[in-house]
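for ur thesis appendix - PRC-barrel domain-containing protein. copy paste whatever u need, i formatted it the way the template wanted (i think)
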Amino acid sequence: MKSAITELFGMKVYTEDAVYVGDVDDVIINVDTKKMESLALGNVNQEVLDITNFRGVKIPYRIIRAVNDIVIIRHLAGMSRPEIIED
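the 3d part is after this line
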């Protein structure tokens, strides 16, 4: 599947376990190999990733599972679904 890199900007990123991670802010490309290296995410879900003192996070290309209307990445250890507290 080929698509324009600009189509990725603003896409929502979720894990395979349906946990929201963040939004695609940028795409990092290795100019020597002409391949995508990672996605830079902003608006990161603070309940999933602790990024205190950082503005975002980079998601390596190797953990991206699918791209369509959203981006789905492999679920990583340490990422957990926020607990739902019922009254």
